[in-house]
Structures are given as C-alpha cells and as structure tokens.
TrEMBL record:
<keyword id="KW-0012">Acyltransferase</keyword>
<feature type="domain" description="Phospholipid/glycerol acyltransferase">
    <location>
        <begin position="78"/>
        <end position="192"/>
    </location>
</feature>
<dbReference type="Pfam" id="PF01553">
    <property type="entry name" value="Acyltransferase"/>
</dbReference>
<keyword id="KW-1133">Transmembrane helix</keyword>
<protein>
    <recommendedName>
        <fullName>Phospholipid/glycerol acyltransferase domain-containing protein</fullName>
    </recommendedName>
</protein>
<keyword id="KW-0808">Transferase</keyword>
<keyword id="KW-0472">Membrane</keyword>
<dbReference type="InterPro" id="IPR002123">
    <property type="entry name" value="Plipid/glycerol_acylTrfase"/>
</dbReference>
<feature type="transmembrane region" description="Helical">
    <location>
        <begin position="16"/>
        <end position="36"/>
    </location>
</feature>
<keyword id="KW-0812">Transmembrane</keyword>
<comment type="pathway">
    <text>Lipid metabolism.</text>
</comment>
Amino acid sequence: MKDALLPHPRSVLFNLYWGAWTALFVAPLVVLAASGAPARPIRAATRLWARGILFGLRHLVGLTYVEEGRERIPAGPCLIVANHQSAWETLAFLILVPDVAIIAKRELVSIPIVGWFLRRSPMIIIDRANGTQALRTMIDESRAAIDQGRSVLIFPEGTRGEIGEPLQFKRGVELLYGRLGLPVLPVAVNSGLFWPSGSRTRAGTVVVSYLDPLTPGLAAAEFMRRTEGAIDRELDRWRPAATAA
C-alpha cells in the first residue's frame, strides 16, 4: 500500500475541487429553500453533489469502486447494516442505494452548504448525547422513510473504525431491527484502506460487498451475532493488506 500513497499536491487538488464543487450548490440551495424545500428535488441535488465528489475521487485521486453481490439487495425497503471506515461510504451510499435514508450523527450537518441538503434529504440526523430521545428519533424517522418506500442505512459502530479491529456494534441497531421488522442486508466495505481517518486519500479500488440478507423476526442476540459476524468475516479478506500498509 505504500506505493499507493498519493503525492501531497493531488490531495490538495481534490480538497480544492471539493470546495469548488460544493460552492456551486449555493444557488440551488437558495432556490429550493425559497420553494419550500421540496423533498424530491433536494434528494436529487444531494445525489448530484455526491456523484461529483466520487467523480473527483476517480479522476483526481484515482480512487474507484466495485460492487460485489448487488443481486442480494432486497426488492423492497430493508435495513442496511454496514461497517464504517471513512467518509467514502457516507457519500457513496447516496448513489449506490438511491433514496436511502442514512442514519448519521448530528455533526455531519454542520458542513457548510452540504449540511442543509443532508438534513432535508437522505439523512436521519440524531444527537447521540440525547440518549433515549435519539433512539426515538431514529425509530420514528426510519418508519417514516419506510412508509415512503425507502430503505434505511445504519453504521452500527457509531463512529469510524479501523479495518484491522474487530467490529463492535452498538445496541441501537438491535433495537431498530426489532422495531422495523424488515429484512437486513449486511454490507462490508474496505474504504479504510484508501481513505483512513485523518489521512489523505490513496489511489485504489474500494470494494462494496453485499452479503446474504437476514430475515426479520430473529432473536436480538442471534441478529447481532449473525450480522456482526458476517461483516467481520468479510473484512478478513482485506485485513492482511491493512497490516502490510
């Protein structure tokens, strides 16, 4: 992985591109806000923004992605449970699963311009410091998304994890599974190999691996064991590369 480290100027160039591309959305923000913040156009604008960021990663950084097992995605709304290693998957899932409702922490909406769109489109924003109220918000807004025919995505680790560390899901995902009664799609990503927390991006190919779905109605402990275990085993594919980096 050492050879995949990018020269510093390319990272700077991508950061400049990120800022310039995001600034272009000031005008749509003003128009949509004046129009009463209609949900569908906002979601479309958010997906367009995310596509532009992935375009910049591909052409300025050399960071691409592939999907494995996409045929496993259920036809109807489901609960998507994915590991979280970088900002990449937060952006990419807006494209990979259109209209998905992503459960995210409140800090995300503090991003200038983008935060306005995220709060009003694909995201279910929770303040983890609020404890019980955060769980209630997560469940209520997830149900509302499902009623609209949208799937719900949660990163149950609660924060970014290192690819070499075993997964540790927080209990919120267990509660959400029990309340929603949806099939579950476990997803493993290896984005931490190329965009680790606090580091510049590296050229390479992120793998998004959709695993076998789980049915609703499992006992809570069984759900946690099977979902966490499936993603953790898939991460074993990439852990040797992380060790060698």
